[in-house]
TrEMBL record:
Region (Disordered) residue spans: 51-81
Pfam families: Biotin_lipoyl
Assigned keywords, A-Z: Biotin
Domain Lipoyl-binding: 65-148
The protein's name in its UniProt record: Lipoyl-binding domain-containing protein
Native organism taxonomy: Bacteria, Pseudomonadati, Bacteroidota, Bacteroidia, Bacteroidales
Entry-linked InterPro entries: Biotin_BS (IPR001882), Biotin_Carboxyl_Carrier/Decarb (IPR050709), Biotin_lipoyl (IPR000089), Single_hybrid_motif (IPR011053)
Amino acid sequence: MKQFIYRINGQEYIVAVNKMDNGLAEVAVNGSNYKVELVNNEEEITLVTRPASKAPAATATAAPKATTSAPTKPASGGAGSVKSPLPGIIIDVLVNEGDEVKKGQTVVMLEAMKMENAIQATQDGKVTGIHVSKGDSVLEGVALITIG
């Protein structure tokens, strides 16, 4: 059994991979059991079923390497949110809160599937919030920064 500790929005989750069989795995997240299906043999598994209990809602992404932080949960953002177009790891945040940005300007660098992706501002404006840090793992649709 392999165990990983993931931090999602400041909360730590203990993820134990109990059993792997033909692309299906049984994992326990903070003691709640899940059955997950292996999507990519190298990197991630996705949630197939959720327990009926009030366990914290965590999308278990149990990667073989425990060196990255837990995926950030998708956040609803307004029109000024720059969202991750795909799951990956933040390799650089190129702006600071309060910076003025132009539409199309690269604001975040995201590594996904061993490729660097330049994430660009969706509009002109001032950066009013930065929701990720270098090294964070994010899921598709996560608000990375907010432009006001």
